[in-house]
Amino acid sequence: MRVGKDRWTALLEAGHKRARPIVMTTVAMIAGMLPIALGLGADASFRQPMAVAVIGGLLTSTALSLLVVPVVFTYVDDFEKFLRRLFHRSEFHVPAAVDA
Predict the structure, then answer these.
(1) Which residues have a Cβ under 8 Å from the Cβ of 47 and sit 6 or more positions away?
(2) Most exposed: 26, 51, 75, 98, by fewest CB within 10 Å?
(3) Closest Cα partner for 53 from 36, 41, 28, 40?
């Protein structure tokens, strides 16, 4: 017996619920790091590379969270279904013991 929603509905609902907080956090952090990345303020040459790296990491992690992780989940789910069919089938093809 299967409990829950189908994969497509679950992915859409999870993406809808998680997209806003992820994007809001990313935008807020980028807005905070942008003046440092642009070189505004004191000692900009020392902190500017760090701010650029943080902004790049935020954009990368946002793309991974919202795009790549759901796609990888579908591949893993398909692979799990394949393994279930493969092993479930092999249980029924085991030859029965012959009484002598």
Answers:
(1) 36, 41
(2) 98
(3) 36
Contacts of 65 (CB under 8 A, 6+ apart): 18, 22
pTM across the whole model: 0.71
Nearest to 25 by CA among 52, 51, 53, 62: 62
Centre a 10 Å sphere on the Cβ of residue 51 and count the other Cβ atoms it contains.
19
Could you give the count of Cα atoms lying within 13 Å of 88 in the half-sphere of its Cβ? 6
Q: What angle do CA 7, 13, 19 make, to 5 degrees?
A: 125
- How far is residue 26 CA from its own chain's centroid? 15
pLDDT digits 0-9 by tens, 2-52: 678 888 998 999 999 999 999 999 999 999 999 999 988 778 788 899 999
